[in-house]
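Why should sequence recovery work at all? Because a backbone constrains its sequence more than one might expect. Tight turns favour small or flexible residues, buried strands favour hydrophobic ones, and helices have their own preferences. The token representation captures these environments compactly. In the example below, the structure is given first.
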């Protein structure tokens, strides 16, 4: 470990109480083991560290913003490891408006990338509630999704090239801004979504987009997820690919947000069972088109009522309700937070089947379902019965969190879905992957890992055991 300190200097190493935040999980569900945290500043330093670790069998856990929710960035399995934080590699290397490309280092915080793109009158459309802390390296390592996937795709769809340090210490320099480049296996896509198990992403070429002249936000009261699907269908027909995102929120969930954050206002005077938060963006006049399409939905009986944001401040206020949902779930005592996806047409069955599966595990459990309905990705957050604390409940019912997660997985798979939509596998879902993936898929995943990281130094215990 002294040799590693020699590469970056003592000031760029943390341990003990100084490093405590690197061992925490954003939901408070796991605590990592104490280990050395190293903060390199350049790709050359990362390469030197990796070479040293590979020669000495020291495991490396790459770390971005620490907002991952499947324990991929935590040292749960052994303290014979280092955490390699990319936070000091946070420079934007270049922006090329003609190419619509920004080259950014892995430790750039997502919100700072948004701001840099805006300085060039462009935008980077990947966005999520953790945008103030998560890093582009972590976003790519997890192939993050977020709130604009409907129109712009996942992190993978917004990355043109990658620079990465491979387990041997070699630097893969694939930062080309080309849109067309069919020259063998696409190593960029192998590294994206690999959760730090194949290499360390040190920089990326990101695809920028022109800014939309008009952005429209609407909050709708609806009766059921089935009506949400009808509304989605109608809007996609009317608005086409100018639909940025569509988020489903339950009346129960909006109530939790307003209870835990009393300064936030519910958009309607009365309460409703379900809500939709809708974003469209595009040409001038889109607001009128969106309003007309929603009026049509009201006429057809899919939508009960609509609030259209009249200003940027109102837009933010509506999105704040959605963005405070994860924290409200946490404060309410969520002990299981799922991230599964089904084909979009199965959303209604997904919600009802999951709720039934959860209460079959234990009568009295409460579920807040919310999320990216436009992508078929609904998060189900499960709480103990009313007036029972999370810790008392978990103590009285050992293993219940796993049983609930498995019940949700089974309900998802019965509808042709995936057990991980956008958060990845990490350490939390490693056994779920092993249980539900086909034998042939597991064989190929292991062969790839063995070929690229034969000494298993890259994030061992994440994704694969
Ligand atoms: C409030 C909240 C809201 C969220 N909303 C969303 C959402 O809408 N959509 C979504 O997809 N996710 C969401 N997440 C999950 C999380 O923010 C994303 O997974 C994010 O992409 C993680 O980025 P990070 O920089 O924090 O990565 P970390 O948590 O530090 O790491 C995540 C994984 O990536 C690996 N890793 C990190 N950096 C690198 C690198 N440079 N090279 C190689 N591997 C690396 C780590 O080893 C780990 O396995 C949310 C989380 C929170 C707390």
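From this structural description, the recovered sequence reads:
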């Amino acid at each position: 470990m002294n040799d590693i300190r020699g590469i970056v200097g003592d000031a760029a190493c943390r341990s003990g109480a100084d490093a405590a935040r690197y061992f925490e999980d954003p939901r408070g569900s796991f605590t990592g083991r104490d280990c050395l945290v190293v903060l390199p500043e350049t790709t050359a330093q990362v390469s030197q560290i990796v070479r040293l670790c590979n020669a000495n069998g020291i495991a490396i856990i790459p770390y971005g913003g620490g907002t991952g929710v499947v324990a991929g960035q935590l040292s749960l399995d052994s303290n014979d490891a280092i955490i390699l934080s990319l936070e000091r590699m946070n420079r934007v290397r270049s922006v090329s408006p003609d190419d619509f490309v920004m080259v950014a280092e892995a430790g750039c915080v997502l919100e700072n990338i948004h701001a840099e793109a805006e300085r060039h009158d462009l935008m980077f459309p990947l966005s999520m509630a953790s945008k103030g802390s998560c890093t582009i390296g972590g976003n790519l390592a997890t192939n993050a999704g977020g709130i604009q996937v409907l129109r712009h795709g996942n992190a993978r769809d917004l990355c043109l090239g990658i620079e990465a340090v491979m387990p041997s210490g070699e630097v893969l320099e694939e930062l080309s801004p080309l849109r067309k480049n069919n020259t063998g296996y696409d190593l960029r896509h192998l590294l994206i979504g690999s959760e730090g198990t194949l290499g360390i992403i040190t920089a990326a070429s990101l695809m920028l987009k022109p800014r939309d002249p008009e952005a429209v936000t609407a909050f709708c009261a609806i009766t059921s997820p089935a009506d949400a699907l009808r509304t989605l269908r109608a809007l996609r027909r009317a608005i086409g690919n100018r639909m940025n995102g569509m988020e489903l929120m339950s009346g129960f969930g909006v109530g939790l947000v307003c209870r835990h954050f009393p300064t936030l206002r519910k958009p309607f005077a009365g309460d409703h069972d379900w809500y939709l938060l809708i974003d469209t963006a595009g040409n001038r006049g889109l607001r009128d088109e969106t309003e007309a399409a929603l009026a049509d939905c009201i006429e057809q009986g899919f939508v009960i009522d609509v609030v259209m944001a009249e200003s940027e401040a109102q837009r933010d206020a509506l999105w704040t309700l959605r963005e405070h949902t994860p924290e409200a779930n946490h404060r309410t005592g969520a002990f299981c937070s799922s991230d599964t996806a089904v084909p979009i047409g199965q959303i209604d069955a997904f919600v009802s089947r999951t709720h039934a599966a959860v209460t079959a595990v234990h009568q009295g459990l409460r579920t807040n379902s919310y999320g990216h309905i436009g992508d078929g990705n609904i998060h189900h957050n499960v709480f103990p019965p009313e007036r029972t604390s999370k810790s008392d409940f978990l103590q009285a019912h050992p293993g219940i969190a796993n049983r609930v997660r498995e019940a949700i997985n089974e309900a998802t798979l019965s509808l042709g879905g995936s057990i991980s939509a956008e958060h990845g596998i990490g350490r939390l879902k490693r056994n779920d992957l092993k249980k539900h993936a086909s034998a042939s898929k597991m064989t190929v995943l292991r062969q790839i890992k063995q070929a690229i990281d034969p000494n298993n130094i890259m994030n061992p215990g994440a994704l694969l055991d």
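A few observations help interpret the result. The pocket of flavin-adenine dinucleotide is lined by residues 26, 61-69, 72-73, 86, 106, 128-130, 134-135, 137-139, 141-142, 144-146, 195-196, 200-201, 326, 422-423, 426, 459, 462 (CB under 6 Å).
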